[in-house]
Design brief:
Shape: globular
Bound molecules: flavin-adenine dinucleotide
Strand content: 15-25%
Number of helices: 7
CATH architecture of the largest domain: 3-Layer(bba) Sandwich
Helix content: 25-40%
Low-confidence stretches: 370-383
Order of helices and strands: EHEEHEHEEEHEEEEEHEEEEHEEEH
CATH superfamily of the largest domain: FAD/NAD(P)-binding domain
Number of strands: 19
Length: 383
């Protein structure tokens, strides 16, 4: 840090949340430094899937409205990132096909379509019979047709992280890899290279951030939900919309590879590594998309999704350490909302109203209202 001066904002963690907070703060003219214990994208943001899909439109809520606005502004955001740093994040609004295998699935999809037309500002669903150019969907998976949802996009997570890092460099943000934060204070952190003070600390360190909060305050601020995914190389490159069927995503990327995701494991023995659950998922993907049957599996990957006490983002000042802002709880939707979370953090830092859903606040997550050590999570996932 010598010679760089005291940053206005020190971001801990170079995943998509931390980098997006740094981008937004630098965009407000603030002096920003990012500290990363490994290399950018070495946490959950280094996965291969990159689906950017809206929540189901039924049971509309402020959280869903926040995500919708984020998805609608994502294209312009990623275009600006690409233009600033010269790196392509692999973003495209491709939409999402939902094959309908029985009458009940069709009815459910029609109900979602009605809710979408009430809330999605004209991004209406449509329905059609499986067509010749959708031959890569198995006919038996779409006996009751196919729903098309036009709002979904895809991004290449690792390239998105690289694109953000390049854009931050172009904006003069210092990004220090291999710099682990060991402890937090109000307005300073202790690192392997010594103490660093800043106007605000933005804690966007995913799973590592939960450990730092626990050590500093005794508050359990989150847990990890394991996910496994794979990358396939079809013999004939595929392109077009993502395909979604009961939790299974098949996402074609611009380079011709296809990502398949994801498992969702609240309890797990080993945080790293893949197993039979991924084999089962691949089997489902091959049944849904027969053209994947002969495709080589080029990568098997696993990671931990940072989940706050409730399955909502956790954004705002850490109780007891008001200069530490939490930017975490990205859980399953980090890539679609990261830029909006970054702008909200920049609003807080610059004294504006971030206009976040109340459910994202530390208080709504039970932080600051419970005795340290009391259980706030339902189910497992803590070990
Ligand atoms: C299998 C799987 C599939 C997924 N699919 C999708 C999808 O299709 N679409 C989607 O939007 N989301 C998806 N997600 C979720 C998405 O990956 C996360 O929401 C998002 O990446 C979380 O970003 P983050 O920046 O909060 O955390 P992370 O990416 O985990 O970043 C935290 C960073 O902080 C660093 N760090 C930790 N501790 C310290 C410390 N003490 N000092 C310094 N640095 C530290 C870590 O090294 C890491 O780089 C998926 C996740 C998984 C596991």
């Amino acid at each position: 840090m010598q010679g760089q001066g005291r940053p206005d904002v020190l971001v801990v963690g170079a995943g998509v949340f931390g980098l997006s907070c740094a981008w937004a703060c630098a965009g407000r003219g603030l002096r920003v430094t990012v500290l990363e214990r490994n290399t950018p994208g070495s946490g959950a943001s280094g996965g291969p899937v990159g689906a950017m899909s809206p929540h189901q439109p039924a049971n509309w809520s402020p959280k869903k409205a926040f995500q919708l606005e984020a998805l609608l502004s994502a294209e312009a955001h990623w275009r600006a990132v690409a233009a600033t740093g010269g790196r392509d994040p692999g973003y495209a609004r491709v939409g999402r096909l939902i094959p309908l295998g029985d009458a009940a699935a069709r009815r459910r999809a029609e109900a979602q379509a009605r809710a979408a037309s009430a809330h999605w500002h004209g991004w209406d669903w449509s329905f059609h019979a499986r067509s010749a150019d959708e031959a890569w969907i198995a006919p038996e998976a779409a006996t009751h047709g196919v729903a098309f949802e036009p709002l979904s996009a895809r991004i290449h997570p690792r390239r998105a992280v690289e694109a953000l890092a390049a854009a931050l460099a172009a904006r003069g943000v210092a990004l220090l890899s291999q710099t682990e934060v060991r402890s937090l204070e109000d307005g300073a952190v202790d690192t392997v290279d010594g103490r660093i003070a800043a106007g605000r600390i933005v804690l966007a360190a995913g799973m590592g951030g939960f450990d730092l909060v626990k050590a500093a305050t005794g508050i359990p601020a989150g847990c990890g939900v394991k996910g496994q995914a794979a990358v396939l190389a079809p013999r004939v490159p595929v392109s077009g919309p993502a395909i979604f069927a009961e939790g299974l995503y098949v996402v074609p990327h611009a380079d011709g590879s296809v990502a398949v995701g994801s498992t969702s494991e609240n309890t797990w023995r080993c945080a790293t590594g893949t197993d039979g659950l991924l084999d089962d998922l691949l089997e489902r993907a091959r049944a849904l998309c027969p053209c994947l049957a002969g495709a080589r599996v080029v990568e098997r990957w696993s990671g931990l999704r940072p989940r706050a006490p409730r399955p909502d983002p956790l954004i705002g000042p850490l109780p007891g350490l008001a200069r530490v802002l939490l930017a975490t709880g990205a859980f399953k939707i980090g890539f679609g909302i990261a830029h909006a979370v970054g702008e909200a953090i920049a609003d807080i830092v610059t004294g504006r109203d971030p206009r976040l859903p109340q459910g994202f606040s530390p208080a709504a997550h039970g932080l600051g209202h419970r005795k340290a050590g009391s259980p706030i999570f339902g189910g497992g996932g803590l070990g």
